[in-house]
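The material for today's practical consists of a large collection of protein records. Getting from the letters to the tokens is the skill we practise here. To make this concrete, we reproduce a full record directly below:
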Amino acid sequence: MIRSVARALAAPVLLGTLLLASAAPAEPVKPLTREGDVTVKDFTFRSGESLADVRLHYTTLGTPHRDAKGHVDNAILILHGTGGTGAQFLRPQFSDVLFQPGGVLDPARYFIILPDDIGHGKSSKPSDGLRARFPKYDYDDMVALEHELVTKGLGVDHLRLVMGTSMGCMHAFVWGETYRGAMDALMPLACLPQTIAGRNRLWRQMSIAAIKADPAWQGGEYKTQPKEGLRTAAALLAIAGSAPIQMQKTYPTREAADAAAEKILTVDTMEANDLIYQLDASRTYDPSPKLETITAPVLWINSGDDFINPPELGLAEPLAKRIPHGQFVLIPASDQTHGHGSHTWAVLWQDKLADLLARTAPRP
């Protein structure tokens, strides 16, 4: 059983006024967004734990279009990464490229759904009160709740596209295996469709261990945030998401790098239990045994300077060959890429997204 509550935000505004000079381009338009909450009742997690109410927050852009049979036919689901929220896709490097009039994901054409996953943002999470007693959710639980949000909460029974970045990339593969036929296409960005191991597992586990080793943690019942543990976790997160060329350009001197390190290690806005759960949710992820069962066309994109999914492992290409309608693209490292974060810099891959949508468009 689901209860849905939607609330409209402010009307669209321009990020800046249009310049009168004819040679000057128009400023990007801030698209109209709507936020809402869906409550999933009596949800049982794979661990056997349950919650009477799971709150799922979401943001949408555009308007659902219904075909002659009353089915929504223009919905696009975009899934965020670990520690993120749906709002991350409203940042300029994504929104100003894709969500513009005439853009590849123009909200005048598509109904775009940006969830906050469980454990993140304004959705139910440990810091709401249960702390370390919160159910130990994993990626399968998260995808199941995304499906509840989309189908029962928003009334969308088929998706034009499922797209995801980092953790959302991994969720896209789970969607393709779990809900075959529920989407026209999949676009995972910045991940590998196999169990998380090696260096990727190490930095996650070391982050969790550092927080739990801090005496202030107190088994998750801390009175104040375990800041020393969080500082270690923040440092590991910064390295995991690093882009060597961009960091060298941004911090070209010792002083600039030292100032950046001090800022990174300021952890006043971090929440320890939430972060532990977010990192630990990947523990059971492994779609590799069932890649052959994915029926939707897949455009999977990684970048050459991704610390978390380094191409030198040589894992992506053989995995991609097992996906019946799969295509793997590796964006070479350059002064335009942003390491693992290249997944959100849409200028790097918007042409490939446009091609995917064109070749998977339903026939009239």
Q: What stands out?
A: The CA atoms of residues 14 and 29 lie 5 Å apart. The chain has two domains: 2-12+27-195+286-359, 200-278. DSSP finds ten helices and eleven strands in the chain.
